[in-house]
Amino acid sequence: MAWEFTYAGLAERGVLLDLNTMLAHDKTFAAELRADSVASMYETFTYNGGQYAFPEQWSGTFLYYNKKSFAEAGVRPPPGRWDQPWSFGEFLDAARVLTKRDRSSRVSQWGFVDTWAPYYSALMFGMNNGVPWSEPRMNPTHLNFDDAAFIEGIQFYADLNNKYRVAPTASESQSMSQTDLFTSGHAAMALGGHWRYQTLERAPDLDFDIAVLPTGPKGHAARSNIGTTGLAIASSSPRKKQAWEFVKFATGPMGQAVIAETGLFVPALRSAVRSSGFAKAHSRIGNMAVLTGGPAHAEGLPVTPAWPKIVALMDRNIGPVLRGSRPAASLTDGLTPKIDEVLRTP
Amino acid sequence: MTPIDAAAAAVARRRGPSRRRARAGRIFVAPNLTAVAVFMLFPLGFSLYMSFHDWDMFSPAKFVGLANYRSLFAEDPLFDIALRNTVVYTVGTVVPTVLISLAVAGVLNRKIKGIAIFRTIIFLPLAVSSVVMAVVWQFVFNTNNGLLNIILGWIGIDPIPWLVDPKYAMASLCIVSVWRSVPFATVILLAAMQGVPENLYEAARLDGAGELRQFVSITVPLIRSAVSFVVVISIIHAFQAFDLVYVLTGRNGGPETATYVLGIMLFQHAFAFLEFGYASALAWVMFAILLVLTVVQLRLGRRRAAQEERSWA
């Protein structure tokens, strides 16, 4: 299984087989796959001219929201289609109304929680303020931490807990994970991906639906990210043919239909996402368009073999911003040169 | 048979069994030696070899000479941070460990009823894996509902973000590390204390020395070699800290670089960045530092012992 963030390092080292070599002998499947794929997802694994994996699922992020909390507070539910954006301001207003405190001013319900990795989520807010993480997406030499709008989005995310107090800080979510806060009804909105669905679906007394992420003042449209995993074949595999048969099955229409019916993932192929099996497996979700339209409204994250180093740098430098001890603007001079150096000399 | 022949035969008879015994000895030692060769000498040699190479595990290693060492000392700003953190962690662990375990061993060395129970309790942390320990301490350090902050709350201290704030993260780490190292140090010191002859204490009591005086003037000087052993072992352990840090404050030695110690740096370069050559160079630098520290300490210890002998004579 290959992950969008880490496969580039393996591809660069020649560990993964270029699947184009297999596709060349399997023209029918190649055509079938091409026609049924979402281009941006398929191309996520196209690196330096080779195709190193086929996507098997879409795991981009969106919002889960507690329908009961919204109804009780009289707040209009967030939009359920990617072409109907809502603004950072509307999101903040909702989160403010939905953050409830008891008499001792302890929070009994948070407006917003984050079930993903905070520094990744912060960048999602930067991206929803109209700036991609990097340009170009593949093998970038620069990430946009010096773009004012990107920084503004990150700052907005950090302010959610430090300034507006509508989301728990790292300390406040130590005793109960942010996912648990949402499943137990102590949070009205939660950022996450489909990988949380099984947990939430099983939570007793939780009536939830899903919605799109808010868009910043400089953003043009609501965006998710191309989170995806794919299936790859080791270039040293002695059983390439058998592996190829399995990859074909799992990432082709048949396997994808099976995935759709189980409800375990959002399948990568369009036919499977639109299948009745997929809808049936998600009968508790009203806004299915968030899932079915997700891949087409998602932007890619940088693909570079230097990703592990970038993550370490981001973790170290975005931490103080998220804790509120430094403004997001500090990333422009503090993080950008370090990242650029790593990207130039991985 | 001449007398000479008889003597030679006797020697041969005697040499026979001894030679056989030697062979048996070698056979018995062989598995151990093989294990040492395979799991110690080979990795050591291999990592030294790798420290002069650029190797990512997948592509063939490329010889780079001293480049790994050069960039470690001259170009990597994180090496200084990691070294500083490791020194703080080592001092913050070793000093309290020695003081606390001396006190604890002193108390456990008394002959009172039920002492065996106390000894068992004290030694319990030794049996707990450090990962389990770290997970338990995570609950203790929890900012809002952690045991430590609840207790501090009773005396009017506001919740401290132990593992979240860089200011407190290293202190938290040291607390856990001390808690983990005290039992082992106590075992060693207690064993040494029990070897101190009782008549010395009797003489001291006759001279009117109190308990504390006896401890400072008799017990501590007489178990000095055990103390220095504990110090050496604790320094080596603290210097190589990894598992505790990894579980308590994460794989990047956060928050920020507050707990970024050499062990974390090594792991990160080897297994996250796949820079095995660089990580090997770092491992050898750590080894060199520890070697120098240990040799210096042993020298100092020996000199002190010699001085004392002279002063007694």
What does the model show?
The complex is a heterodimer of chains A (346) and B (313). Chain A is of the alpha+beta class and 346 residues long. Helix content of chain A is 43%, strand content 14%. Chain A has 18 helices and 13 strands. Chain A has helices spanning 7-12, 20-23, 27-36, 39-44, 67-73, 88-98, 118-127, 148-162, 178-183, 197-202, 240-251, 253-262, 270-273, 276-281, 289-292, 307-323, 330-334, 336-344, and strands spanning 2-3, 46-47, 50-51, 54-58, 61-66, 100-101, 107-114, 187-193, 208-211, 224-225, 228-231, 266-267, 298-299. In chain A, the strands form four sheets. Chain A has a five-stranded mixed beta sheet with strand order 6-7-8-5-9. In chain A, strands 1-11-4-12 form a four-stranded antiparallel beta sheet. In chain A, strands 2-3 form a two-stranded antiparallel ribbon. The longest helix of chain A is centred in the last third of the chain and has 17 residues, at 307-323. By secondary structure, chain B is mainly α. Chain B has 13 helices and two strands, in the order αββαααααααααααα. In chain B, strands 1-2 form a two-stranded antiparallel ribbon. The relative contact order of chain B is 0.12. Classes of the chains: A alpha+beta (346), B mainly alpha (313).
Concise overview:
The complex is a heterodimer of chains A (346) and B (313). Chain A is α+β, with helices and mostly antiparallel strands and 346 residues long.
